[in-house]
Target: Phosphatidate cytidylyltransferase
Amino acid sequence: MNVSNLLARTITGIVYIAVILSGILLDSVMLIGAVFAVFAGQANFELQSIVGINRKRLMLKIVHALMTMLLFYVIFTSSIQGVAYRDFLILLLPYLAYYLFYLTAELYRERSRPIYEVGLAFFSHIYIAVPLGMLMLLCVDKGTIMDLEGNVSGMQRTFWLLPIFVFVWLNDTGAFLVGSKFGKHKLFERISPKKTIEGFVGGIVFTLLGSLAFYYIFPAVTTIYNWLILAALVGVFATWGDLFESFIKRTYGVKDSGNILPGHGGVLDRIDSILFAAIPAFMFIEIIVYLK
Model:
């Protein structure tokens, strides 16, 4: 990696982290929601480019990406604002209309593998919009969050996004540092030749250490065992999320999902880990940490 590329990668990474942390630390659900919506639309557009969905239909490709944002918005709005059932159906109506339109349109497109096209199209929505929506589902009042000194945290709604993202970043950092220094045994050579078992273990160790820091700073939130389990879940699934996107790109002979983020590729390259980690993290927090 040359110096200019490293500099671009560093600056892009700092901006990305700053945007996420700004929304979390300001406890701004709307800012986080807006950022995630943009991520959802752009990541879907990139995924369509990778697998060849709507390749020669730019407008349909754009609309399909916008529908990812709409599905995310429905999840976000219904969870955060607690809309009535009738209003929820009204919000969902445009997406359902689009869904029927897309299926009907396949009757006239004369594709060689129409079911394959439909499957890829709506898998792209589930793969991207649902995990990001689950993160927004965590942004509801779960009681008062206090630090070790008994002070009320300024992150009453966005708190749980902080450890999830920090654990993902620690896992990436640990895997890179340990893998670069000590990596000898390939983790999944068929999909990602650069990943090593040593790097994977290093990432998990960094994540677990991060969980101890969270327990020290916020001891009243949950037990140390829950922090350790949450960190382990995020670390393992974040790695699988990265591998899964690499699997998609390798299948279609693509190096990066896009070039919108200098030094990092596309948005999907940046959020692939969180798309997998969000699901077990959400389930663990909702079912175990807040089990009544």
User: Anything to note?
Assistant: The longest helix spans residues 224-251. Residues 149 and 217 are 8 Å apart (CA to CA). The two ends are 51 Å apart (CA to CA).
